[in-house]
């Protein structure tokens, strides 16, 4: 019968030390099979379902059981003294799934970050470690909790030792006390190994006595006392069961020898040495960033006591709400140096709401005497008097008054729309933190404040009346805003050493920060949309979805939910008998790649209609999202993010205008609905031609690639002629396609196997193609090898402009993480340099438009492409300025080629 997991208060004596022992491999496997593999992987391809499930379970246990001592025991290998005793022990277990490989080492990294001790002993199992520690802890009057999916641990249960046995996954645990063991198995815990010896244990490949189940075995043990008693009385047991007992006595004795746990191992740690010291917050951040466990990290921080030493506290403030006639004097008295600002309000879809502004000076040193806590002020922008508003406006617009924001784009846009443009922006703490550590997943101010300052975003209560605002009912929004402003300036100062150490200070001041107002204006302007055409397109795709579904149903003779993997599995593999795809916990995968590969093998009409249904559904969803995003001005205002992609590329969101389909005719129809606005003459698009391959040529110095670009010949045709040994005119479309795929693939760490899948050729043919390529372009081969070796030596890669990406996993013992880091090392300098170059071009073209006082506006950036709305009569000059800015954005050994197109719509302006 099942037993609920009781709260700690029900199961543990107060005042006693509490030890939690976890069987690492057992719970890792449980987690792996409890969570779908396909739903848990990083952007680098590392599967993480076992790590996620294990960590989630661990967090829950640390929260619910509140142990002060913890240890996780691991198996070293399957070769133990038990396999020497019985060669077939666990011989029925298959090898670990490929997706499980590497996840145990990641779990150990999580445990190391949480500072939870781990123990493993060659020749023994985790259960033996747990048995030894449990026995030692019992003698030292610990209360012990054992978390394991191995029933052998039930023999350890006593009044002070409880086994938490998973019933379902790693979240539903049965609390196995002596009473629970007796109730479920009919024997006390110490007799459980005797019962298991008689019945056998399928999971360990230990055969039991035929026809003897737990009830019979328990009855015999009750009659004869223990297993020795049963063996001694074997001749007295009647019937078929007695015959089987006597026939299998040798196996029963082996079973009992194997399932008994060792309780006296020599271990490197004692129970007293397993006390939790408090976890390493920074290591947790780094590791969870890499594993992309944002939600799990939030759960960890919310549910567990923070590590010691805890945050030093909050912020002490001498703050005041500025009233009429006080804004100018306060700014003159306090805001003459670098200050932090925090805006109350919002910025979304190019529209802002600036309600109030807080300003704070840095926290002074202790030797500064009175006012060492620094000054802070709060201004309500909705009620501020005209004279005060004028003083604030002049101060904000003064380029010599240096200001720092966190995530400055929104505040700058919102203030500008209130008629308060800002100059003198010296820093942005979100961008600074991003440039230092581009692989983080979050740059939230509160998170960064804890990480870098060891403080929380709260007012530190004081009895001396330092804070002039009323705090009798807790902090109000003015206090909160001032604390944020103080955190911004203190964080800015804290980040300076790391900014310079990581060569990021210049990149911040010359590239990322100047780009902020350019992006802010692009968001504010938006791009016009033909909503009627977009609505018609939505109806078109809806009809396509319906038609594809009807045609699919006609093939199989029934209607199903085409979005249900379970129903699709039944149709594809049971009804239609198609070849099985990759196995998952819920059956065989029906993801897009698997279905496309399956169609390539079978060309079954049902698959054709299913794929069309999925394509039409995706396009319809895209159009529906765009329709919802059209603002009152008839334009769509996307939001650009500078801190998402570790390589430096900009990201577009709400809606994402960087993933508007362009490779299919149906997808290109969406771009036809993006049009020039009523006051414009046309849209102009300009993009770089093969910029990543040009950067490859520059960085590698390969004379063949350089010659290809300088010759003016089609790159892939030129390279194909060298690789295949034919004249350029004789390079077929198929040859060119293979060369193009390989050229770009090499820059992203593509393996021969990956290339073979992409080109639908054998791995040996793909390897031969790569070998021929490198024979003729040896500089590329040497560069690719060298960039990884250099990154492993220095710890980072960098772009042409010096943007660094630190890759500690290049020396990881985990093969998957190491190989992923190697791919990043290949990719980051090339894709990052392309990102830097387009940003330089954006700054240069924006400056040129302003210098010439043109009315044309930059609307969009889509990776290597810029989209402009050209004002009447300005087309020729805008094209000239744009080509000049983009082609001159970097000095490479090969020319930066820019293609330009114009038209009434985005699609028409393509080239």
Care to describe what's here?
Helix 17 packs across helix 21 (505-525) and helix 27 crosses helix 34. Helix content is 48%, strand content 13%. It has 35 helices and 26 strands. The longest helix has 37 residues, at 815-851. It is an alpha/beta fold. The strands form eight sheets. The chain has a six-stranded mixed beta sheet, sandwiched between helices. The chain has a six-stranded mixed beta sheet with strand order 8-11-10-9-12-13. Among the domains are: 8-185 and 261-274, 5'-nuclease (Rossmann fold, 3-Layer(aba) Sandwich), CATH 3.40.50.1010; 313-522, Nucleotidyltransferase, domain 5 (2-Layer Sandwich), CATH 3.30.420.10; 530-629, Taq DNA Polymerase, Chain T, domain 4 (Up-down Bundle); 703-776, no CATH class. It catalyses: DNA(n) + a 2'-deoxyribonucleoside 5'-triphosphate = DNA(n+1) + diphosphate. Residues 15-277 form the 5'-3' exonuclease domain. GO terms for molecular function: DNA-directed DNA polymerase activity. This is DNA polymerase I. It is an enzyme of class 2 (transferase).
């Amino acid at each position: 019968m099942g037993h609920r997991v009781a709260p700690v208060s029900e199961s543990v004596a107060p005042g006693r030390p509490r030890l939690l022992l976890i069987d690492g491999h057992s719970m890792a496997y449980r987690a792996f099979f409890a969570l779908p593999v396909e739903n848990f992987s990083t952007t680098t391809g590392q599967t993480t379902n076992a790590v996620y499930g294990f960590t989630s379970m661990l967090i829950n246990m640390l929260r619910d059981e509140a142990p002060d001592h913890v240890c996780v025991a691991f198996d070293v290998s399957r070769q133990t003294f038990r396999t020497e005793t019985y060669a077939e022990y666990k011989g029925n277990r298959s090898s670990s799934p490929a997706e499980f490989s590497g996840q145990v080492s990641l779990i150990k990294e999580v445990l190391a970050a949480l500072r939870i001790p781990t123990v493993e002993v060659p020749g023994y199992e985790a259960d033996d470690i747990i048995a030894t520690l449990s026995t030692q802890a019992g003698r030292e009057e610990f209360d012990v909790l054992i978390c394991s999916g191995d029933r052998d641990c039930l023999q350890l249960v006593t009044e002070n030792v409880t086994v938490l046995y998973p019933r379902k996954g790693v979240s539903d645990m049965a609390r196995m006390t002596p009473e629970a063991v007796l109730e479920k198995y009919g024997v006390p815990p110490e007799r459980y190994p005797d019962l298991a010896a008689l019945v056998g244990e399928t999971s360990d490949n230990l055969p039991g006595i035929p026809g003897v189940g737990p009830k019979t075995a328990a009855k015999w043990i009750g009659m004869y006392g223990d297993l020795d008693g049963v063996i001694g009385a074997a001749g007295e047991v009647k019937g078929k069961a007695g015959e089987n007992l006597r026939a299998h006595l040798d196996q029963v004795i082996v079973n009992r020898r194997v399932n008994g746990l060792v309780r006296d191992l020599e271990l490197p740690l004692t129970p007293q040495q397993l006390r939790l010291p408090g976890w390493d917050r920074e290591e947790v951040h780094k590791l969870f960033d890499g594993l992309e466990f944002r939600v799990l990290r939030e759960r960890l921080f919310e549910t567990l006591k923070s590590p010691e030493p805890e945050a030093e506290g909050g912020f002490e403030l001498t703050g005041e709400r500025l009233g009429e006639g006080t804004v100018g004097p306060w700014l003159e008295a306090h805001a003459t140096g670098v200050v932090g600002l925090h805006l109350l309000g919002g910025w979304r879809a190019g529209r802002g709401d600036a309600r109030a502004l807080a300003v704070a000076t840095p926290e002074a040193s202790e030797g500064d005497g009175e006012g060492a806590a620094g000054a802070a002020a709060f201004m309500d922008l909705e009620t501020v008097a005209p004279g005060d508003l004028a003083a604030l406006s002049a101060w904000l617009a003064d380029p010599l008054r240096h200001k720092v924001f966190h995530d400055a784009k929104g505040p700058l846009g919102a203030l500008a729309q209130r008629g308060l443009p800002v100059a003198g922006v010296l820093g942005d703490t979100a961008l600074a933190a991003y440039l230092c550590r581009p692989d983080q997943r979050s740059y939230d101010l509160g998170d960064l404040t804890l990480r870098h300052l060891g403080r929380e975003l709260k007012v530190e209560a004081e009895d001396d009346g330092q804070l002039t605002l009323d705090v009798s009912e807790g902090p109000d929004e003015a206090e909160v805003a001032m604390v944020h402003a103080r955190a911004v300036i203190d964080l800015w100062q804290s980040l300076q050493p790391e900014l310079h150490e990581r060569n990021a200070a210049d990149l911040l001041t010359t590239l990322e920060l100047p780009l902020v107002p350019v992006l802010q204006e692009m968001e504010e302007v938006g791009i016009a949309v033909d909503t009627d055409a977009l609505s018609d397109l939505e109806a078109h795709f809806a009809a396509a979805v319906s038609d594809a579904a009807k045609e699919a149903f006609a093939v199989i003779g029934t209607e199903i939910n085409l979005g249900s993997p379970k129903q699709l599995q039944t149709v594809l593999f049971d009804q239609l008998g198609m070849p099985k795809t990759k196995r998952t916990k819920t059956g065989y995968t029906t993801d897009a790649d698997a279905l496309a590969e399956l169609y390539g093998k079978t060309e079954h009409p049902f698959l054709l209609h299913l794929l069309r249904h999925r394509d039409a559904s995706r396009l319809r969803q895209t159009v529906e999202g765009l329709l919802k995003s059209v603002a009152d001005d008839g334009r769509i205002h996307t939001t650009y993010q500078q801190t998402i992609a570790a390589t430096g590329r900009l990201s577009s969101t709400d809606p994402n205008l960087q993933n508007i389909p362009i490779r299919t005719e149906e997808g290109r129809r969406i771009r036809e609905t993006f049009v020039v606005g009523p006051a414009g003459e046309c849209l102009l698009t300009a993009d770089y031609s093969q910029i990543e391959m040009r950067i490859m040529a520059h960085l590698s110095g390969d004379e063949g690639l350089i010659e290809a670009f300088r010759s003016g010949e089609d790159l892939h045709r030129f390279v194909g002629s060298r690789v295949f040994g034919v004249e350029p005119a004789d390079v077929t479309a198929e040859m060119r396609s293979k060369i193009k795929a390989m050229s770009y693939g090499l820059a992203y760490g593509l393996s021969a196997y990956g290339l073979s899948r992409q080109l639908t050729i054998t791995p040996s043919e793909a390897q031969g193609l790569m070998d021929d390529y490198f024979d003729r372009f040896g500089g590329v081969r040497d560069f690719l090898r060298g960039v990884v070796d250099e990154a492993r030596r220095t710890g980072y890669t960098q772009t042409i402009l010096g943007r660094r990406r630190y890759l500690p996993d290049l020396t990881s013992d985990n093969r998957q993480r190491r190989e992923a880091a190697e791919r990043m090392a290949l990719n980051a300098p090339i894709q990052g340099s392309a990102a830097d170059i387009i940003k330089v071009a954006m700054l240069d073209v924006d400056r040129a438009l302003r210098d010439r006082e043109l009315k044309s506006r930059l609307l969009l950036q889509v990776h290597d492409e810029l989209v402009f709305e050209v004002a009447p009569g300005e087309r020729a000059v805008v094209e000239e300025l744009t080509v000049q800015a983009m082609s001159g954005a970097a000095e490479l050994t090969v020319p930066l080629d820019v293609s330009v197109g114009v038209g009434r719509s985005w699609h028409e302006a393509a080239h």
